[in-house]
Amino acid sequence: MKSFEYGDGELGKKEIMFAVPSMVIGIGILSLPRLLANATNFYDGAIALLIGGALAILFTWIAANLSSRFPKKSFFSFTPLLVPKPIVFILNVWLTIHFIFFVAYEIRAIGEIAEQYLFGRTPVEILSVTFLLVVVYSVSGSRVGILRLNLLFLPIICFIAVSIALMNITYFEFQNLLPVFTTDWSGYVEGVKLSFFSFAGFEIVLFYVALMNRPKQAAKFAAAGMGLAVGLYLIIFTTCIGVFTNDTTSTMVYPTIELAKEVEVPGGFFERFESLFFTIWIMAIFNTTAMSLDIAIFSMGSLFRNMKKVTRILIISPLSYLICMFPQNINEITSFGTLISYSGGLVTIFIPSILLAIAKLRGIGKCE
Amino acid sequence: MSKSLVRWLPLVFLPFLLTGCWDRVEIEDRGFTIGAAIDLEENLGNEEDKNEQHVYQGTYQLVVPGGLGQGTGQGGGQETAYQNLSTVSDSLFEQIRDLAKETSRTPFFAHLEMIIVSDDVAKVPGAFSNIMDLFLRDHEMRRGVKVLISKGNAGDVLKVEPKPENLPVMFLDSIIENAVKNPQMLQEVRIGTVHEYLASNNSFVIPKIEMNGERVDSEGAAVIHGHNDTMVDFISGKTTEGLNFIKGDYKGGLVKAKIDENLVVYEIKNAKSTVEVNTDDKNKIKFHIIIQTEGTIGESFKRFDYTKPKNIEKVQNAMEDEIKKTAETTVEKLRDDLKVDALGLGGYVQRKNYALWKMICDDWDHGDNYFSKSEIAIEVNAIIRAPGSIIQIEK
Amino acid sequence: MDKNIQNIKNIFDSPSDLTIRKFTLGKTNINCVLIYVDGLTDKNLIHNHILKSLQIEVIESGKDFSQQPDQLLEELYQKAITISEVKQADTLDEMSLAILSGDTVLLVDGINQGLILGSKGWVNRAVQEPITEGVIRGPREGFIENLRTNTVLIRRRIRDANLRFKSYKIGRRSKKDLVVAYIEGIANPALVKEVERRIDTIDLDDAPESGYIEQWIEDSFLSPFPQMTHTERPDKVATALVQGKVAIVLDGTPFVLIAPVTFGNTLQSPEDYYERWMVGSLIRVLRYFGAFISVFLPSLYVALVSYHPGMIPSKLAFSIASTREGVPVPAFIEAFLMEFTMEMLREAGVRLPKPIGQTIGIVGGLVIGEAAVSAGVVSPIMVIIVAITAVASFALPSYSFAISLRMLRFGFMLTAAVFGFYGIILGYIMINIHIVNLKSFGVPYSTPFAPSFFKDWKDLVLRSPIATLSQRPQYMQTDDKVRMDKDGESS
Fold this sequence. Notes:
The complex is a heterotrimer. Chain A has a single domain (13-346), classed as Amino acid/polyamine transporter I (Up-down Bundle), CATH 1.20.1740. Chain A starts with 12 loop residues before the first helix and ends in a 6-residue tail after the last helix. Chain A is an all-alpha fold. Chain A has helices spanning 13-24, 28-39, 45-68, 75-82, 85-117, 124-139, 143-167, 185-198, 205-208, 218-249, 255-262, 273-303, 309-324, 330-362. Chain C has 3 domains: 2-117, no CATH class; 147-261, no CATH class; 273-444, no CATH class. Helix content of chain C is 47%, strand content 12%. Chain C has helices spanning 2-12, 43-55, 69-80, 92-101, 147-157, 189-200, 210-217, 234-243, 263-266, 271-274, 277-306, 314-323, 331-351, 354-375, 380-394, 399-437, and strands spanning 18-24, 31-37, 86-89, 104-108, 114-117, 163-170, 176-183, 229-231, 246-250, 256-259, 439-440, 443-444. In chain C, the strands form 3 sheets. Chain C has a 5-stranded antiparallel sheet, sandwiched between helices. Chain C has a 5-stranded antiparallel sheet with strand order 6-7-9-10-8, with helices on both faces. In chain C, α11 runs antiparallel to α15 (380-394), α11 (277-306) packs across α16 and α13 (331-351) packs across α15. The radius of gyration of chain C is 30 Å and the shape is elongated. At the B-C interface, α1 and β1 of B face α12 and α16 of C.
């Protein structure tokens, strides 16, 4: 039976507010405490996190503002209004490649971590491919559906993140956070750099605000969503340092998961809480990957206007899989991730700001 | 139509996945290992081993579920519920893998409750942290595994008669949890905390366990020097009690004092300590430790009218003296005798004066040993809340 | 006239229940004939109001009707026939359909038209409490197989002039009556139009049950989830209509369809509203747990036992291991066997007569379970799990939803068997993807979780006090928003 559009409002502000943290919260948070602990002393990473977070919120606001000036137009529809065609083409190609690589990174990372914490002998290839298939299934549905999944999953993710923080309270020692302000400037700069890049992911507003039917308040809500992500990161980082001390945190590969390992539910009801934690975290990573794949396919669609969606999916998915199997060990994966986050950083910082400046100066786009 | 083709893709892959199930190991095929004990293997006469790695003997306690006597009573109650297996190697990982040669079940460590390291091993420089490495690196083990150091052979501890429990490790586990009642025992130390200690350069203490014939004795502790993570020595139960007072880990216990030649027992419900530090002179860092306790009268051989504040005052003072004596003995032992800061006092310097700490941290209890040059003053404040149910036994 | 009679006889091929009664009109000599089917008609009505009126009480009017025959019919209509439902029929098709529906056809010699007199009456089931949807507190009326009675039951509950019943005839052979009910002014007109559009496309020989209709007009036939609810309770239908939904009543079945339906609706029951809000909320929360257990418990068991025994507390883990010592099959085969047996027992229980059915279910389960455990084929933990799962699935108010969950349970067991927790979570994500993309008559299935209409959350998991439920569900986008006034006046 043909379905028809009734009662299916397009995106509202809530969806955007939930979409931003869903994209940002993913693999990064698992190892971020270690990187921050390496760069700074004791609890000073929190300050770097706050500054990086504030910057991220600012740029989210800029990007969302840019998109909301052109209602119903996606990124590739309004950019030609601002810059000449060749630049748009370059951006298009760059973004497509960026997101394809991002998807590859995510599926590889999840395969690795699942293999380490949930299984022992199952090959990473199989874990990655099953995950990729589920993501493909989600992308082949409607785009709005993907954003609705964010609404469904984000509360669960926040709940579990807050519960590990709460359940570790008995191990939390406030004195582990002191003394403060002992790091030198280079440490802070490094920390801010790390935090900002781990908050990358808000470039999705460039693409999803187009689906909103009333984009006027998009910027505010997107920024609020980013604030949620920053808050969550802060809670986890604080708990890591408080429970483990800075030195120990810097020796763990995934401090966040180790935090879940520490939890001992009174009464011995559960033992390996980290299995549960990681299982739910898979949902967070799924959201990130689904949105990335969706944008990759969408970007490719702007390049090859006549290709059907199915064909695009069938090209990009195996390509991502091949790329993901490329790195040989965890260090290569990490550097792969760093490279992608730099690319993402450039996208998120420069492109929206420059485009917004152009739009404002030339007076293009509806002023909301 | 092609859209539904994409939707069918996942199903097409399904049969391939069924051929796998790589990690499926049924629960009854797992050998639950609940305890590990590491001893130094007597040299087998191989000269090359002497200068390089040390060879360890690991004794592992596996559960035999059928002998637990629960379920539908298929196994008789006569089987022992556990099995101790030993393997020898210089690598713990290899030891664990070798276990699989001796038992029909794959060793499974997720329920590992405790690790006992013998003092011989702990006294070898670097050996302790080497042993902890596997247990932290492997994701199968939890961070809540308890760590103990045994005086004498560690494997023997696992053979203790477990009555009334079923398994020796569970028996030991409940003894250690009794630290709440006995202040001469150190509170349990989880391997997660050990990781924190090892990662920093602080010295720390690990609970001690010892086989006294058939009985298990768990008073006292082992002191590990933070500088090279090697055990220095054991400290006695009394010293441990003082340590607990100073660190604020005292969970409950009693203090005996003689008042006018008669015994009075003060039962402490809880105690806490605050430490103030003065870092003006780095060669003479002053610590002021205030211990506060509150409790009730446990037993009084002295006929006292406890309704009179003056009497209470007297008893409190006597108790304070006792506690102070205990604490000072500990300080002497640690500062003057062993010269190791197991009290965590370095942390206070770190928080108070980070610039100074950065300079002296390498020499805190090693080298120049600023710790041993420090002054530690102890002040005790004991409060008696109530005399119990009766005031005096006879008027 | 005789020719017409012969024609009608030919159409039906003279069955024995077709009654043809010739008579003359009153004091005239005009020949008439009554044709009806014995059993479908109310004989009393025919005898007293048709035959009697026409044979005895027709008064000579003095007009000569041989010139204007249709005037005769008009005269009869106005003065002679004392029945309320009278229609004129021109074609044989109309007449034969009327006869089959239980009406009587009156033919007059010399006139080509006939009159259709309403005389329906046949054996009906009494209105009793619905078998599949009993409640503890609430009305005990349920729909029966007669369309008119069903619509009456709805009308009695909503005495609003805006309640609309649109009639359709369904089935090429069965020509059943179908009524689409909605309240104009509340239901969104686009929804009503869509429902009507879909019903217009139905092309079946026969629709013996509303299930046929449901499957024809639902959005996605591949989905394991039902996209329309069916119910035997008039109070449920009335509530749905007031919320702005559309009901579809089919002659011949007591099950009335309600569209659209969302995920939140499947776990709601009218009883939640008849009890007070605390009770209603807690029971609803219990139902959510029940649904969760009913889907996930066996797969969680399989995943824990085969893949992640580290998560089970030590003592329990040892105990499970010891009880599984003698079991020859791996955990997931054990789970499949037991669940499969349970499903067969359930199916068997439905077929058996009521008193035996209940006992067989319990005894069968216990006995088979006990025997299986003693034989060492399954472990006792498995029996416990299967029992709890079965009990949890009975807590769900919607039978079709419970069936969907049963299907999903097997799916999850399979994923758990292959990948443990990873499989369960990927399966869960896949189900969510499906739900998010599923629409029921244009309303996304996962409303009001996503898209979130916060105002609708008051009635979702917890049921807020009656006074706060003053607005109609937002996702229905009804024309008339407010259900009740704070001052107590209904609008």
